[in-house]
Specification:
CATH class: Mainly Alpha
Mean pLDDT: 83
Distance between the termini: 41 Å
Order of helices and strands: HHHHHHHHHHHHHHH
CATH topology: Growth Hormone, Chain: A
Number of domains: 1
Structural class: mainly alpha
Radius of gyration: 21 Å
Number of helices: 15
CATH superfamily: MFS general substrate transporter like domains
Largest sheet: none
Low-confidence stretches: 1-16
Length: 456
């Protein structure tokens, strides 16, 4: 898969970049698969399980949540494993190859769940497929996200690398946010075959993009494992004593709980509360994909001017205002209003993703300079675990809230418009995201690692 990126889309931040544009683009291609995988599961899985597979919403939300408990073990193990391998080649790339295959396969399995007669059989099948998804995502993403910290020691070059990554995430927004809803709208959002085609097509794209990242990073700069690698419990203690990392982890946890809740409630809110069809998501996905691309260089420039943490706070403030505005949503919501919210959220997403990952690589390199030990895998393992575990809370919260509100999975979603269901969905799409966004801003205000600290 080849994607041509405008040379001016992410302007070089230093006169002679340490990382070639070819490697940046190749590595960043993996984000296309990661984002399609994560966003599609976050956006579609609960709705698919409840409205198509006819699984009780409480059971569906709990099932998604429980599969993430496995990450408590898998993420640090994979991170530690990729840190400790001794090789004259990259420690990380073999994981990318295996993770690519498992990730694509899991996506296909989830969205081609057989319609067994028993609800429990359907739930059991999805559980196994979700476990494969969890394992494949971990094997690919933990080493993948560790690689930029090895590629360069330059403070602003890291923002540039993740700027390229954001380009592919924007493309993923088009695929997951526009193409998938278009297929579902055309073939029937409650039809099993619609999700079959989404699963097959998405699985192929996910695998291909991740394989491009594996292939393209063969000549990327990498680091070697230390001669004496500390024991895993020593590593865990060290990581959790890093105040910069713990604060960043808290920020991400808050934000992602809100984002996951909003994603899980999104389709239900559109159909039940706004009383609109999925064509709204198609138009919104197109706008988000395009606008996100435009915001990438803007976010990078803003961060150079005011700093990474302040740029991150600005993005979070925009997010809080937009999600809080969903409380004003009513049946018959105009298309322009829905798209405007989506466009504003694109800026927040760009700032969130680029700044968070750039700050993470700063933390990793700052720690390596202080201790002489490279811990990219361990740090990214806990970062990745935070991403996946918090994303599991979204379907759990929304599933339980819908169950308590009396949601009947055997009825078409748009037929259930009670005040209780509206409040259950507002909990997921507005109340929790806004509260978590404000808490993340509070945590960000205390982030102290600056560029000058990395020069010491």
């Amino acid at each position: 898969m080849t994607v041509v990126v405008d040379e001016n889309a992410v302007p070089p931040l230093i006169s002679e970049p340490e990382v070639s544009k070819k490697i940046k683009i190749g590595w960043a291609t993996g984000a296309l698969g990661v984002a399609i995988l994560m966003n599609s599961i976050g956006m579609l899985a609960l709705f698919y399980m409840v409205s198509v597979l006819k699984i009780n919403p409480m059971l569906a939300g709990t099932l998604i949540f429980v599969t993430k408990i496995f990450d408590v073990i898998s993420d640090p193990v994979v991170g530690r494993w990729s840190d400790s391998i001794r090789s004259d080649k990259s420690r990380r790339r073999p994981f990318l190859l295996v993770g690519a295959v498992l990730s694509g396969l899991s996506f296909i399995l989830i969205f081609t769940t057989p319609m067994f007669e028993s609800q429990w059989m359907r739930a059991a099948y999805v559980f196994v497929a979700m476990m494969i998804y969890t394992l494949g995502y971990t094997i690919f993403n933990v080493p993948y996200m560790a690689m930029p910290a090895e590629m360069t020691d330059n403070y602003h070059e890291r923002s540039s690398i993740h700027g390229y990554r954001m380009v592919y995430i924007s493309i993923a927004n088009l695929v997951a946010g526009a193409l998938a809803p278009f297929i579902l709208d055309q073939m029937g959002r409650l039809e099993w075959m619609s999700y079959f085609y989404v699963g097959i097509g998405g699985g192929i794209i996910i695998t291909a993009s991740m394989l491009v990242a594996w292939k393209s990073t063969g000549k990327a700069k990498f680091t070697h494992a230390a001669e004496d690698v500390p024991r895993i419990f020593q590593e865990l203690g060290h990581v959790f004593s890093n105040r910069h990392f713990i604060r960043l982890l808290g920020v991400k946890a808050c934000q992602l709980i809100g984002i996951a809740s909003a994603q899980a409630a999104g389709i239900f809110f559109l159909l039940n509360v706004l009383q609109r069809d999925m064509t709204f998501m198609v138009y919104s996905g197109i706008v988000v994909g395009i606008v996100s691309l435009l915001f990438v260089p803007l976010v990078v420039r803003i961060s150079k001017r005011i700093g990474k943490s302040k740029t991150y706070i600005l993005a979070a403030l925009v997010y809080v205002v937009v999600v809080a505005s969903w409380t004003l949503g009513q049946a018959g919501e105009p298309l322009w209003s829905y798209i405007l919210r989506s466009a504003c959220l694109s800026f927040s997403a760009s700032g969130n993703i680029i700044m968070a990952m750039s700050m993470l690589t700063d933390i990793i390199n700052h720690d390596a300079k202080k201790t002489g030990v490279r811990r990219e895998g361990v740090y990214t393992a806990f970062y990745s675990f935070t991403e996946k575990f918090t994303f599991a809370f979204g379907p759990l919260i929304v599933g339980v809230a819908l169950g308590l509100a009396g949601f009947d999975q055997n009825l078409p979603p748009e037929e259930m418009t009670s005040p209780e269901i509206r409040q259950a969905l507002l909990l997921g799409i507005a109340y929790i995201p806004a509260a978590m966004g404000l808490l993340s801003i509070f945590l960000l205000s205390g982030y102290k690692l600056k560029e000058e600290d990395l020069q010491k």
